[in-house]
Design a protein that fits this description.
This protein has a domain of 87 residues. Helix content is 43%, strand content 0%. The protein is built from five helices and no strands. The longest helix has 20 residues. The model has no long low-confidence stretch (mean pLDDT 87). Bound molecules: heme C. The site of heme C (HEC) has 19 residues, from α4.
């Protein structure tokens, strides 16, 4: 009787082992960057929001004569993403680390635009949100 009890325990343990080892493979663990905004609310429009910021603050210097980066409406998107001297200036995983944001904050010297007024925190946040959302040419 004692022996039989042990056998039952072993069988139970082995069954549990087999069952747990067969647990469904859940695939790789994907670590997503933390998005500090509710990005489901609305999409930031490049032409409607970002370009006007460039028109107001940047194109006086960042025109066709600028050696690195032309921010005029007809070319700014392709310059930022593909063609500018140090493109891409954008980063959808870590926008804070993008060349554009680093210049707007002055983390990468000198701050852009060089003279005040600088781009506001709220506008910098919106540019970052645009990058998080995949920096569409929308
Ligand atoms: C008064 C002129 C002036 C204004 C206004 C200005 N910039 Fe610049 N910017 C420059 C000059 C000159 C350089 C190149 C020298 C340097 O890297 O500091 C530059 C460099 C940059 C670079 C780095 C380019 C590279 O490939 O290294 C970025 C990005 C940039 N500017 C973004 C901006 C943005 C965005 C604005 C507007 C919000 C702006 N700048 C406004 C003059 C200006």
């Amino acid at each position: 009787m004692k022996f039989y009890g042990k056998t039952v325990t072993y069988i139970a343990l082995i069954t549990i082992l087999i069952l747990t080892s067969c647990e469904k493979d859940k695939g790789p663990i994907i670590i997503r960057p933390e998005i500090p905004y509710d990005s489901t609310v609305y999409m930031i429009s490049y032409s409607g929001y970002i370009q006007p910021l460039f028109n107001e603050n940047c194109v006086g210097c960042h025109n066709a004569a600028h050696p690195f980066l032309n921010l005029h409406a007809s070319v700014s998107y392709s310059e930022l993403v593909y063609n500018g001297e140090n493109a891409p200036y954008v980063d959808n995983i870590d926008p804070e680390n993008s060349l554009l944001i680093q210049r707007l904050r002055g983390v990468e010297w000198p701050i852009m635009p060089p003279n005040p007024p600088h781009v506001s925190e709220a506008d910098i946040d919106s540019i970052k949100l645009w990058m998080y959302q995949g920096y569409f040419d929308n």
